Amino acid sequence: MTPRLCPCSFADVAQPDQARIVALNAHHFLKNNGHVVISIKATCIDSTAPAEVVFAAEVKKMQEEMIKPHEQLTLEPYERDHAMVVGSYIRHKA
Questions:
Q1: Tens of each residue's pLDDT in the chain, 94 residues
Q2: Is there a domain that residue 61 lies in?
Q3: 51 CB neighbour count, 10 Å cutoff
Q4: The domain that contains 6 carries what CATH number?
Q5: What is the pTM of this model?
């Protein structure tokens, strides 16, 4: 039985390798142009680096895994060093 592909995926895992986890889920479960929403907590990934540097590195990892970011916003002043990234998964290159 073929797995059913989903139109969207959300992740709030607070792990150092969360971009990899999101990418694995996208590769297995998302349709082409399916949407990804990831909550990034910078201190869980690298507590020594500035949050902006961590966010940029995570977005770069997502891009390398065929996830095209559309929007990124921080959760300040509600949550310090948190950001949300919304993107789409490109299963097949055009």
A1: 455 667 788 788 788 888 999 999 999 889 899 999 999 999 999 999 999 999 999 999 999 999 999 999 999 999 999 999 999 999 876 5
A2: yes
A3: 19
A4: 3.40.50.150
A5: 0.86
